[in-house]
Amino acid sequence: MGYLISILCIGASYAIATLGLNLQWGYTGLFNIGVAAFFAVGAYTSAILTGPDWGGMIGGFGLPYPVGLAGAVVFAALLAYAIAFVLRLEFGFLAIASIMLSTVVILIFKNEMWLTNGVWGIGGIPRPFGEMLSPATSDWVYTAVALGILVGVYFLLEKGVRSPWGRTLGIIKEDPTLAEMVGKDVYKWRRTSWIIGSMYMGLAGAVYGHYIQYINPRTFDDVMITFLCLCMVVIGGSGNNKGSILGAYVLWGTWTVSEILTGFLPEAWQLRAPFVRVLVIGIAIILLLRFRPRGLIGREAAISKMGERIRTGRVE
Amino acid sequence: MGGWIVSGLVYGSIVALGALGCSYVLLIQRYFNFTVAPWLALGAYFAWTMKQILPQWGGVELVIAAIVSMVALGIAMTAADKALFKPLRDRGAPFMFFYLTSFGLLFAVRSIIWLIWGPQPKYYYPGASVGIKGPWGIMVTPAELLTLIVAVVVVVALYFFQYRTKLGRGMLATAQNPMLASVCGVEPETVHTTTTMIAGFVTALAGILYGLTIQIRPLMGWFILLGIFVCVVCGGEGAILGTLAAGYLVGIAEEFGSNLIQIPLNFWGVPVEMSAYKVALSCALFLVVIYFRPQGVWKGTFLER
């Protein structure tokens, strides 16, 4: 039962981050490999804003849960805005800038004791209604809250990408020159999409932190957050929000189940299991890109004439 | 002071060698190769294993091990390119696919290294080596001196290969206009194979020198990767001398800059330990460079090549 809650709840937070990445990557064509930075900033912001006084470090605000979420979203957006000027340049620079951002952010969280308690991490992050419920009930209530947030942001994003706003992003992904010719300021559109996607990642971090209740810089290493989120987008099919959620749950479910299964192995094999798991997922993503670039569901036929070609698999 | 600059130059030489491999791939195949991080570690581990097999011959065994490892890594990178990236090129897949494939390969190769050699750090020659004292507080170990010399020799050799041989010029032509180059009789596949082979050579060399001056560990490439990217962007893609100069710039920014900034921080009593933020300094350098000169620092000025 505990595993089911863990899959549902952490899967929900991964799904929110994947939705944000899907907006950036699937709909706008921005390659973000610094998901861990926004995720960590969200988790830490929310933990510090809502947490009790730990002593020796910043904290003791004790604000309600929604304020923590809002703070996480705002700080993730500020962080995204700080490096948004990179979007003016060609594709690869954003990838490098975002991977640098994630490295530096994790470095700061690791070293600044007054802010994050360093490698010892922050514990005792409160949950909504956490004090008045027993731990088991609190798990279920929090799962409901997380799933509710997931459904809410999913419909918000669906509404967005089906509006003229979303279609413009589609044009910018397919053909930036064309978008510029019809009078769209490509940089501003990309920046909006970049910041909104990052807000989703910050929100996901906050949801994650309140479920786990203990976070440290090692929680947010690149394998666990950035790589998994990218794989989730690819598995579900980039440019499809349902696919993102499906991909998140499929991959996270597989990950957790394989963790349970390796628990039965002898100890020498258990130490190797995490590396085997990463190896398998790495090979799987390469093969997927090679043989089925559309992912499980694939992208929807959004732009009328492209529809036929997408369905027959000539456009990726 | 002098010591900081020398350690910066040593680190910069290693970064520049790693960046040359990345730069060649960017020039010919048009994507930033993230996989250079684990490839670098793999080259160092190949050489370590080879050196364990060979008997002690007073340093000669390391040279042999290095050459074997360079060739092996060249073959490995070429095979990966042919198996994974060539189909994407043939299909005309979007750029993202190249980036994502190299990102997936990064994690695959990294976990292979972990599975085979384990997480403990390894050394070619265990134990501290004696440094040679120079003026102005300079202190270099033989390994560091070797690194400085090897980097310059490799860069000069590559420079002559690039601008004085037919194949090298063919590579430049392919980089500028693949269609026209293939019409003029440059085999595209030969160029791609040469590119990945050279990239393998210099990447393995960078890994071995890193292992020789510091240590060999599975994540060694990851720590140096950001410096490599800064170096590629600063140097301008495929500009060989520019890449070496940019490597020195990155090394000095990290080693000299972190120590220099520490002095006023200590003076004002700001509780920040700059040595933990060396990578942040090269990231700041990256942001400054791409804000003001996204085409590279030296491109189009006094070091066009």
TrEMBL record, chain A:
<feature type="transmembrane region" description="Helical">
    <location>
        <begin position="5"/>
        <end position="23"/>
    </location>
</feature>
<dbReference type="GO" id="GO:0015658">
    <property type="term" value="F:branched-chain amino acid transmembrane transporter activity"/>
</dbReference>
<keyword id="KW-0812">Transmembrane</keyword>
<feature type="transmembrane region" description="Helical">
    <location>
        <begin position="30"/>
        <end position="51"/>
    </location>
</feature>
<feature type="transmembrane region" description="Helical">
    <location>
        <begin position="271"/>
        <end position="289"/>
    </location>
</feature>
<dbReference type="GO" id="GO:0005886">
    <property type="term" value="C:plasma membrane"/>
</dbReference>
<feature type="transmembrane region" description="Helical">
    <location>
        <begin position="91"/>
        <end position="109"/>
    </location>
</feature>
<keyword id="KW-1003">Cell membrane</keyword>
<feature type="transmembrane region" description="Helical">
    <location>
        <begin position="194"/>
        <end position="211"/>
    </location>
</feature>
<feature type="transmembrane region" description="Helical">
    <location>
        <begin position="140"/>
        <end position="157"/>
    </location>
</feature>
<protein>
    <submittedName>
        <fullName>Branched-chain amino acid ABC transporter permease</fullName>
    </submittedName>
</protein>
<dbReference type="Pfam" id="PF02653">
    <property type="entry name" value="BPD_transp_2"/>
</dbReference>
<keyword id="KW-1133">Transmembrane helix</keyword>
<dbReference type="InterPro" id="IPR001851">
    <property type="entry name" value="ABC_transp_permease"/>
</dbReference>
<feature type="transmembrane region" description="Helical">
    <location>
        <begin position="223"/>
        <end position="239"/>
    </location>
</feature>
<keyword id="KW-0472">Membrane</keyword>
<feature type="transmembrane region" description="Helical">
    <location>
        <begin position="246"/>
        <end position="265"/>
    </location>
</feature>
<feature type="transmembrane region" description="Helical">
    <location>
        <begin position="63"/>
        <end position="84"/>
    </location>
</feature>
<dbReference type="InterPro" id="IPR043428">
    <property type="entry name" value="LivM-like"/>
</dbReference>
UniProtKB/TrEMBL annotation, chain B:
<feature type="transmembrane region" description="Helical">
    <location>
        <begin position="6"/>
        <end position="26"/>
    </location>
</feature>
<keyword id="KW-0813">Transport</keyword>
<feature type="transmembrane region" description="Helical">
    <location>
        <begin position="97"/>
        <end position="117"/>
    </location>
</feature>
<keyword id="KW-1003">Cell membrane</keyword>
<feature type="transmembrane region" description="Helical">
    <location>
        <begin position="222"/>
        <end position="250"/>
    </location>
</feature>
<keyword id="KW-0029">Amino-acid transport</keyword>
<dbReference type="InterPro" id="IPR052157">
    <property type="entry name" value="BCAA_transport_permease"/>
</dbReference>
<protein>
    <recommendedName>
        <fullName>Branched-chain amino acid ABC transporter permease</fullName>
    </recommendedName>
</protein>
<feature type="transmembrane region" description="Helical">
    <location>
        <begin position="274"/>
        <end position="292"/>
    </location>
</feature>
<comment type="similarity">
    <text>Belongs to the binding-protein-dependent transport system permease family. LivHM subfamily.</text>
</comment>
<dbReference type="GO" id="GO:0005886">
    <property type="term" value="C:plasma membrane"/>
</dbReference>
<keyword id="KW-1133">Transmembrane helix</keyword>
<feature type="transmembrane region" description="Helical">
    <location>
        <begin position="62"/>
        <end position="85"/>
    </location>
</feature>
<dbReference type="GO" id="GO:0006865">
    <property type="term" value="P:amino acid transport"/>
</dbReference>
<dbReference type="GO" id="GO:0022857">
    <property type="term" value="F:transmembrane transporter activity"/>
</dbReference>
<keyword id="KW-0472">Membrane</keyword>
<keyword id="KW-0812">Transmembrane</keyword>
<feature type="transmembrane region" description="Helical">
    <location>
        <begin position="31"/>
        <end position="50"/>
    </location>
</feature>
<dbReference type="InterPro" id="IPR001851">
    <property type="entry name" value="ABC_transp_permease"/>
</dbReference>
<dbReference type="Pfam" id="PF02653">
    <property type="entry name" value="BPD_transp_2"/>
</dbReference>
<feature type="transmembrane region" description="Helical">
    <location>
        <begin position="137"/>
        <end position="161"/>
    </location>
</feature>
